[in-house]
Amino acid sequence: MRASVLLMVALLAACRGSARPTAAPSPGSDRATLTRLITAQLERSASDWNRGDLDAFMSDYAPESTTTYVDGRRSRAGFDFIRGVYAPRFAPGATRDSLHFEEVEVRPLSATLALVTARYILQRESAITASGPFTLVMERRPEGWRILHDHSSRDPS
Description:
The chain is α+β, with helices and mostly antiparallel strands.
């Protein structure tokens, strides 16, 4: 099982693409610096969500057909599929609760790969409408860190 996970990460790391630039740490950056950088990226992503900018929100994902998304039920691949999951929430008149992230932890896997775990919180006024843990596999590219794999789960109601 572990070998298959490592193989998947290695295969995903071979993917290349481009998207909106964000700062990337130098190869000698420490874990704390990497954590600050990726936390800032997630905060910017939440801001993109909260102002209704789907293109900016999606720019954190590697724009390839091999980028994967697991929603707690099944795994699907493809940037276009992931965009399709989120697009209805950005449609005119759609309800899109305020997003923020908590409990962000970043674990460097190599000079170019990181494992990120955290919790997402969707909130309307003071009420939490959805929340749950997620795990990202991210790759450092010339244009910044990009999500290769997103496994998001929802807390039980």
